[in-house]
Amino acid sequence: MSAIAPRPEDTLIEIGPGLGALTHPLLAIMPFMHAVEIDRDLATRLRAAWPPERLDLHEADVLAFDFAKIPGRLRIVGNLPYNISTPLLFHLARYADRIVDCHFMLQKEVADRMTATAGEEAYGRLTVMLAHRFYVETLFDVPPEAFRPPPKVESAVVRMIPNPAPLSVTDADVFERVVAAGFGQRRKTMRNSLAGLADVGDFQAVGIDPARRAETLSLEEFVALANRIASA
């Protein structure tokens, strides 16, 4: 809770409150907050525990939830379901300009991918796409013994803060396609991965050796290549 440091004036949204393990201490501080929960039975229990003037519960699939409909600058928290954490992070990146920060507990493997640097094994599509919009840091690890029953994986708590001046991307769709294609088959060279998207001239124009693999390219190089392709 100290990592989140909620303030009564915050527009706070919890993702997947479940039985309220995080909701209880948050509402001990917050006069009002939002939550998104897809499970109907859990939603019924949450509504029985708190009236709508304390907890505005959105019974919805968070992967399709429109965070823009909640006014204000958003602080988002949650113990993310491991099976949807990656697509959810991609979804939230679309709302980076509306977000103050995010604090999530998720699988440590995902946290490692979020915070990796070029050349590391964990570095991939998720790393690059998040790095374009957020500063990401791991605050601490959470061992399986912290849960009952203990899961088979380790967890970690991460903080995401939007980058106030992200690198300029000419065409967001092209950027996403370039990053996805680059990491689609990691052992391929960029020349082969981007066949049909980029030619040798595109790589030469931005000073990237087409024989390199995606995991060696920095965020800046991905952006430069995508911008070249978009403007060609």
Give me the secondary-structure topology.
Layout: E1 11-15, H1 23-27, E2 33-37, H2 40-49, E3 55-59, E4 74-79, H3 85-93, E5 99-107, H4 108-115, H5 125-133, E6 134-142, E7 155-162, H6 172-182, H7 190-193, H8 200-205, H9 219-231
Parallel strand pairs: 1-2, 1-4, 2-3, 4-5
Antiparallel strand pairs: 5-7, 6-7
Helix pairs in contact: 3-5, 6-9
Give a short synopsis of this structure.
This protein is of the alpha/beta class and 232 residues long. The chain is built from nine helices and seven strands; from the N terminus they run βαβαββαβααββαααα.
Task: Walk me through what this model shows.
The protein is α/β, with parallel strands linked by helices and 232 residues long. It folds into 2 domains: 11-162, 3-Layer(aba) Sandwich (Rossmann fold); 172-231, Orthogonal Bundle (Helicase, Ruva Protein, domain 3), CATH 1.10.8. The chain is built from 9 helices and 7 strands. It has helices spanning 23-27, 40-49, 85-93, 108-115, 125-133, 172-182, 190-193, 200-205, 219-231; strands at residues 11-15, 33-37, 55-59, 74-79, 99-107, 134-142, 155-162. Strands 3-2-1-4-5-7-6 form a 7-stranded mixed sheet. Helix 3 runs parallel beside helix 5. The protein is elongated. The termini are far apart.
